Amino acid sequence: MQFWSTTNKRPLRGLAGVCERPDGVALARVDRSGDSPRLAICTFLDEATTDPAAGLPELVRRQSLRGVSCVGVMEPRSYSLAQIELPDVPEAEINEAVRWLIKDLLDFPLEEAVIDHFPVPGVNVARSRLGYVVAAPRSAVRRLALLIRQARLRVAAIDIPEMALHQLAGFLPEGDRGVALLYPGRTRSLITVSRRGILYLSRTVGVGAADLTPLATEDGEGGIDPQLTDLLATMVLEVQRSLDFYESHFGQAPVAALAVAPMESPVPGMLSYLQRSLGVPVRSFDLGEIFPDCPLSPAEQSRCLLAVGAALRPELA
Predict the structure, then answer these.
(1) Rounded distance, CA 281 to CA 182, Å?
(2) What pLDDT digit, counting tens, does each position of 195-229 carry?
(3) Residue 139 half-sphere exposure, CB side, CA atoms within 13 Å?
(4) Angle at the Cα of 251 (from 245 to 252), degrees rounded to 5?
(5) Which of 125, 156, 258, 274 is the most exposed place for a label (fewest CB within 10 A)?
(6) Would you say the pTM of this structure is higher than 0.85?
(7) DSSP string, 125-156
(8) What is the phi/psi pair of residue 296, to 5°?
């Protein structure tokens, strides 16, 4: 998936990832020159204390990153993603054909859309090729690209959170057997299901950390707030639907685990509730699984996770 690409040369000193959030900007750089990836830089510029437009160029300068190739990650509400049957046309014509297939799904004019697609490799259902199409307003893509360029980084690609999570999932020990990754974003959560480097499924859940965290208290007997239970039940329903669809539609065995990404504030009882309610092992995910010397707290990981995933893109590293 490569929304926007201007890179024709090999990147310098690894690949960087930049992710915009409503509360700031995350920057990460991954060095893959050795036997295993190394998280060389990972930081978050909080908008409450730093203007990202000014802070990011200064950070890039201090870290000697000028000229490094960078993948930007779009804010989750700034694009649309849909799974479709890819048109049976030559590869060079797919994007144009896809534009007309999804025009009624967009909440902005088709002529203002930047559109790209990526297939689900090797998956055919009823002789049709399955894939995903992503569309975003051209203005949103250009704004993120401008932020990266003004920081004196090179725009390698503009990507989406689902692909950043997919890159992370590929490094988990269950990746070859199939793994679901649950990312509780601020206002909504994302579920991805991957196996052996293939992103089979992505789904959005309308429950995010901002909904869960205010209710994150346990009573004296270890129980959780009834309202929190209701929200977690909604999350469980969407996760279970995703896992069922993955197994039935793609003919896959059950995933080996559901990994839950770190959150800025812990939600006591969340993992145990998911474990009791789902038919697969549920565990927390920590960047230390990929980078053994990772010094980041769960809160710091949560803010920077998508930037790190973007910096793990193998074809650009």
Answers:
(1) 13
(2) 999 999 999 999 999 999 998 875 544 567 889 99
(3) 5
(4) 85
(5) 125
(6) yes
(7) ETTEEEEEEEEEEHHHHHHHHHHHHHTT-EEE
(8) -80, 140
Look at residue 126 in the predicted model and tell me its pLDDT. 58
Residue 194 sits in a domain of what CATH number? 3.30.420.40
Please give the Cα distance from 205 to 14 (Å, whole number): 33
Query: Could you tell me if 96 and 123 lie in one domain?
Result: yes
pLDDT number for residue 89: 85
Partners of 16 in beta bridges: 29, 70
What is the DSSP secondary structure assignment for residue 35, as one 8-state letter? S
pLDDT at 261: 97
Does 62 share its domain with 115? yes
**pLDDT tens by residue, 255-282:** 999 999 999 998 999 999 999 999 899 9
Does residue 301 share a domain with residue 153?
Answer: yes
Structural domain including 98 reads: 1-172+287-317
Q: What is the CATH number of the domain that holds 36?
A: 3.30.420.380
